[in-house]
UniProtKB/TrEMBL annotation:
Pfam families: Methyltransf_21. This is Methyltransferase FkbM domain-containing protein. SUPFAM superfamilies: S-adenosyl-L-methionine-dependent methyltransferases. Residues 39-204 form the Methyltransferase FkbM domain. It comes from Dyadobacter endophyticus. InterPro entries: FkbM_mtfrase, SAM-dependent_MTases_sf.
Amino acid sequence: MSFRDYLPFFSKRSSYAQHGEDIILMSYLQSVSQGLFVDVGAHHPFRFSNTYLFYRRGWRGINIDPMPGTKKLFDRLRPGDINLEMGIAGQEDSLTYYMFDEPALNSFSKVLSQERDQQTAYKIIGEKNIPVRRLEQVLEAHLPAGKTIDFLTVDVEGLDTEVLESNNWERFRPTMIVAEDLDLDYNNLKSSAVCALLFAHDYKLVGKTLTSLIFKCGR
């Protein structure tokens, strides 16, 4: 099935995110016209996308994903964005990228990938060394001059905290942040490394979906 076969279905949808994260974001950002997003772990131009609804409404941004072939697909379907085929991590390096028969599960996390391969129906079908950089380095190089980030979304299957830690929070402060936390205890938010990090940078938790946390800058 080609991407064109998906379009009639997706064109009728009000949400393109996996669990409605884009609708929650839109409720906070509806007054912003032609804003800017950064999507780390972008996965696909519209499947499970937290940003495609905004793209269709005139927003533009930076999509980052390490899956081979991602840039070519994004350049074809979202030519208005800056599309980067690379990984984000705590330091500039090269890491092993585990690829599944369900690409949404691809990850740099060896532990999480092996657990999924052994305990679920999804299987690792390949591994590849992929260059990674810190988020602050990528934003310094590619964020358009004079622009601020209206929202940052991070979904990298197990290494979300490491990605967030690689940002320079004094220079780059998104208004909203979506970050995955697969092990969240909602009754004990202090146990969440994602919450602890973002609370320390003056963000407030304002929403939650099945696997994502949504924060708003408190400044």
